[in-house]
Structures are given as C-alpha cells and as structure tokens.
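User: Can you help me understand a structure? I only have the sequence.
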Amino acid sequence: MNFDNYKIIPNYNTNKTDLFTADEEEILACEKTFNIVFDEDYKEYVQQYGSGILGGTYVRIYLPETIVLTLEEWKKRITEYWFWDEGKEVLTKDQVLNSIRIGDTFDGDEIILLNNRYYILPRYSEMIYNTGNSLEETISWLCSAGILTEAFSEREFEPFDPSEFLKSN
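Assistant: Let's start by predicting it. Here is the structure, written out as tokens:
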C-alpha cells in the first residue's frame, strides 16, 4: 500500500499524534479466530497507522481486537435490519453474515471482507459494492469514486484510542 501521501494529524480531542497500532500477534490471532488471512495492505495499515480516521473524518479501519469484539453484535444488527436486496447479485444476506466487518465510514457505510474481497454496505442505498481485493483499492474507491460521498484527495489520518470507540458501541 502506498502510504507516502498519508499525513498524521493531531487527535481533535487530545491534540496528540500518539498511534494505537496492532502487532503481528494480534493480527494472527484474529486471522485464526475467523479462519481468514488479511491482505498485506490491511496488515500494513493497522501496524503503521492503527486506530483512527482517514481522509478528514471519513474512513475508519478497525484493529483486529475491535473486529473480534464487535462482530457478534454487528451480525445481530445486520440480521435484524437487512435492506441490501438491490445488491443481492453482488452478495446475498447469508454471504454478508459470513463476512467480517473491518471498518466503516463517517456516514455509516460498512466495509466488509469475504473470501479475500472487500465490499461496502452503504447506509443510504440498498446496493452492495465490490471494491476489490485489497484495502488500498477499497480506501481509494471510498475516497475517489464519488459514489457514496463527493470525491476528495485529502489523506490525513487522525489517530484515536480504540477503547473510546468500543465504549460507544
């Protein structure tokens, strides 16, 4: 993944640039838990940047621990509030329920991973989008496609403590 144009900015609340990253052991534990293998982009992202928001408060990629701790509740919510029937040619409800959520956007769109492919479940659309087989492709699609939000070139990364996220969910 090309991180050259990513700039770390201070957290809005703490005014600090401390990073909350994952290590190889945490990534491997998550992979073992779900019998998956993350792409190199995801591994590099969570090891280099970790927990935070990319693109001026738009894309949030979860650390492995966050994925594990929030997956069961996420699947319950998806089961209860399923509405992506327009995207059934891309993924069925059963396929989505066999995926893992690895992130989201400020607008509430969810980033999922299934069989080494990334997909987006938009909050305000019944379509499901296939965004590629790497995290870099998915972030690029989210920030540049102009489908879910106006395209933007900003790639600032604002770190935040993942325990704050887990408290609010």
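Now, to help you interpret it: The CA atoms of residues 3 and 45 lie 8 Å apart. Residues 64-80 form the longest helix (17 residues). Let me know which part you'd like to focus on.
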